[in-house]
């Protein structure tokens, strides 16, 4: 029965991937004339990450198919682009193509400011719209208010990402803990570790991890309309309602029970990842962006992952976007480059390097760990379970979330006070929407 | 005489142009932006004093100024006090007993944190203060979350800033001590004055101008402190270490709320100008 179900999941994954991959190689890049030209490209993926490897190969492939074009690649920092994008894109120093964070407060804001080229025509002409399943298109399209989900294409994502539960198989075995299938089994497992004197969940309150755990807990009580209200403003969000209240109360409770360390408020994501890689924690709840690194760096124990038990939705979305600045003078080249990143060759490389491709050839994903990851992603997307991230709804909300969750970790404010603190900036942004 | 003075005005033109281009115009543009609602791109919308009235009721802004008071203590008051004692000890005791080279070497060591890029110093302190593997907890056998506990975070940042700032007053005060007439000390010694009495009645009054300069520049540095907060705590946990310059930065770059960010920056600049003016007035009166 288990084998049958496994086979069904694999078949579904294969179908999803083959459906995605049908048009990847259809658009042969045009050589774009014979005059020497330069394509200025910025992205912020590290060279050893799955995306970094795939984009490096894409650049080689692009230069081979465009002999008259030189790619001038500049590696930027995530924060560097995040903080200065609107000013850079409004200047003459803008690149021709750039990786950018997706969501209302980021790509949505730039599209609203008229800084990004409308990619709708290219998406239809080159078949990008067919390569990306509906859920992954959400972050590619933005309306006039900069709200994602509808309107014109302003970016093209070509990988996926989601939050999962990483676990240390050796520590699970040592403490005789089974992989939990339900939320109750999960908390029972956490109790077992606490009783054995082990803090089970690696955490980092000064950056995104803690807020994603809080959001994941809220998602266990959330339904789709709530999500659409929160992320796409399609209804009123009650911050004192059952979803966020459960998220905040349970998070605070987890700290009290010792599931999450009380001294984790000031820690950064890197601290959390390194602690997990050093085998100090049996569990880490975080995103697929760690997957490739864990695969190459964890040598001392076996590890695996599972989707958060008891929730049909998890934080996640398409990956970051390729955006083409409105001021780019080489838009045609930028579109050709995006096309290459969607090709099977690049997508397969991405998949075999620990990333989540959207248009790979299932048969070409030979790495066992990569297959497991892609299966989980397909399981989540087939249930329409990508719930985006808690800091997306408003510009600057990331810091608001960090501050709020730190207060939960420290117990310096009650859950209700923290939720009021989260509601204020959200409501302010709603009042500003479209201005 | 008047004709000759008029001729010198020509030499002032480059400085005046530079001052206008680098200081006055950007400042006026910032003030102008503070009266608008603007995301940094597109056309700003004039909203009058709305950003300023919003500031008046913004608890986070006023809370951030309270943290500034703590940082003035850590960056100006405490380093000045410790720096005075250290400089006098190096000058009077170490220099005379172990030689000026030893005193100079020690002075350079105190100054070392000032030479380090703040990002490097911040990252290293972040490691040392790490609640799990940090050297500070290990050495003292403690289990404190130095930068993550809201009751400790500001005090911890203050401690790091004392370390960071200390070398500056030491160097300035030692330079000041070089110009004090040794006959004052010789006369005091003949009269049998203790080290403390010489320090109190000769050293401090003689290097008062240096003390003013150090207090003024360090107070300004404390009011506009950004780098250490960015590297160590990013204003957290919660808002426990938020300061106005970081709050302004958040509005500028995180929220694309350039108008409000400009209003914060304008108020901060005005406060710094007022503080400087008051310092200079007091110094003028003293001299």
Give an account of the 3D structure.
Chain A is 48% helix and 12% strand. With 435 residues, chain A is an alpha+beta fold. Chain A folds into two domains: 37-159 and 319-360, Periplasmic binding protein-like II (D-Maltodextrin-Binding Protein, domain 2, 3-Layer(aba) Sandwich), CATH 3.40.190; 161-317 and 388-433, D-Maltodextrin-Binding Protein, domain 2. In chain A, strands 7, 8, 9, 10, 11 and 13 form a six-stranded mixed β-sheet that branches. In chain A, strands 2-1-3-12-6 form a five-stranded mixed β-sheet. Chain A has a two-stranded antiparallel ribbon with strand order 4-5. Chain A is globular, with a radius of gyration of 22 Å. The termini of chain A are far apart. With 287 residues, chain B is mostly helical. Chain B has one domain (52-286): MetI-like fold. In chain B, a hairpin with a 7-residue loop joins strand 1 and strand 2. In chain B, helix 3 runs antiparallel to helix 11 and helix 11 (208-223) packs antiparallel against helix 14 (258-286). Chain B is globular. The mean pLDDT of chain B is 91. Chain A: Pfam families: SBP_bac_1. Chain A: This is Raffinose/stachyose/melibiose transport system substrate-binding protein.
């Amino acid at each position: 029965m288990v084998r049958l179900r496994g086979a069904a999941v694999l078949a579904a994954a294969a179908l999803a991937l083959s459906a995605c991959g049908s048009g990847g190689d259809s658009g042969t890049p045009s050589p774009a004339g014979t005059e020497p030209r330069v394509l200025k490209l910025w992205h912020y993926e590290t060279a050893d990450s799955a995306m970094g490897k795939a984009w490096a190969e894409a650049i080689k492939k692009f230069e081979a198919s465009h002999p008259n074009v030189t790619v001038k690649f500049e590696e930027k920092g995530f924060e560097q682009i995040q903080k200065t994008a609107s000013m850079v894109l409004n200047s003459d120093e803008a690149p021709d193509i750039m990786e950018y964070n997706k969501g209302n407060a980021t790509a949505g804001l730039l599209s609203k400011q008229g800084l990004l080229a409308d990619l709708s025509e290219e998406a239809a002409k080159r078949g990008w719209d067919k390569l990306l399943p509906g859920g992954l298109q959400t972050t590619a399209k933005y309306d006039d208010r900069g709200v994602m989900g509808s309107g014109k294409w302003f970016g093209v994502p070509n990988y996926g990402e989601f939050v999962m539960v990483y676990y240390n198989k050796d520590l699970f075995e040592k403490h005789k803990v089974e992989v939990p299938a339900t939320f109750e089994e999960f908390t029972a497992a956490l109790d077992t570790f606490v009783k054995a004197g082990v803090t089970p969940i690696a955490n980092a309150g000064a950056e995104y991890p803690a807020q994603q755990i809080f959001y994941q807990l809220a998602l266990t009580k959330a339904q789709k309309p709530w999500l659409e209200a929160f992320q796409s403003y399609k209804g009123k969000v009650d911050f004192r309602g059952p979803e966020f209240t459960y998220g905040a109360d349970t998070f605070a409770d987890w700290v009290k029970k010792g599931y999450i360390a009380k001294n984790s408020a000031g820690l950064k994501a890197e601290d959390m990842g390194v602690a997990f890689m050093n085998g100090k924690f049996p569990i880490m709840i975080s995103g697929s962006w760690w997957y490739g690194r864990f695969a190459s760096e964890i040598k001392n124990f076996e590890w695996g992952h599972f989707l958060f038990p008891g929730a049909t939705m998890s934080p996640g979305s398409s990956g970051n976007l390729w955006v083409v600045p409105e001021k780019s003078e080489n838009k045609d080249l930028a579109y050709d480059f995006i096309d290459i990143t969607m090709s099977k060759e690049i997508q397969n490389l991405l998949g075999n390097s620990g990333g989540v491709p959207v248009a790979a050839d299932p048969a070409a994903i030979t790495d066992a760990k990569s297959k497991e990851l892609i299966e989980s992603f397909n399981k989540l997307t087939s249930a329409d379970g990508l719930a985006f991230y808690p800091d997306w709804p408003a510009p600057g909300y990331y810091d608001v979330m960090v501050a709020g969750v730190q207060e939960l970790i420290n117990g310096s404010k009650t859950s209700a006070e923290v939720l009021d603190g989260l509601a204020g900036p959200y409501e302010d942004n709603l009042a500003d929407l479209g201005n | 005489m008047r004709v000759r003075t008029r001729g010198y005005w020509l030499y002032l033109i480059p400085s005046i142009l530079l001052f206008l281009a680098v200081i006055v115009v950007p400042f006026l543009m910032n003030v102008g932006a503070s009266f608008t609602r603007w995301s940094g791109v597109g056309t700003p919308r004039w909203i009058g004093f709305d950003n300023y009235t919003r500031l008046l009721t913004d608890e986070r802004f006023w809370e951030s100024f309270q943290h500034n008071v703590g940082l003035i203590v850590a960056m100006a008051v405490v380093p000045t006090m410790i720096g005075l004692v250290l400089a006098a000890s190096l000058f009077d005791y170490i220099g005379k007993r172990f030689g000026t080279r030893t005193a100079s070497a020690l002075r350079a060591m105190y100054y070392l944190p000032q030479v380090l890029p703040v990002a490097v110093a911040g990252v290293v302190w972040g490691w040392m203060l790490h609640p799990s593997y940090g050297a500070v907890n290990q050495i003292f056998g403690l289990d404190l979350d130095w930068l993550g506990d809201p009751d400790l975070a500001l005090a911890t940042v203050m401690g790091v800033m004392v370390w960071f700032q200390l070398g500056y007053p030491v160097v300035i005060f030692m330079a000041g001590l070089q110009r004090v007439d040794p006959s004052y000390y010789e006369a005091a010694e003949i009269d049998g004055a203790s080290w403390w009495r010489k320090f109190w009645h000769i050293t401090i009054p003689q290097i008062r101008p240096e003390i003013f300069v150090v207090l003024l520049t360090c107070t300004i540095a404390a009011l506009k402190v950004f780098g250490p907060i960015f590297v160590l705590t990013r204003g957290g946990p919660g808002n426990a270490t938020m300061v106005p310059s970081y709050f302004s930065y958040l509005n500028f770059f995180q929220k694309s709320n350039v108008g409000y960010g400009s209003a914060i920056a304008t108020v901060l600049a005005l406060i710094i100008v007022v503080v400087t003016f008051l310092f200079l007035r007091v110094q003028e009166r003293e001299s």
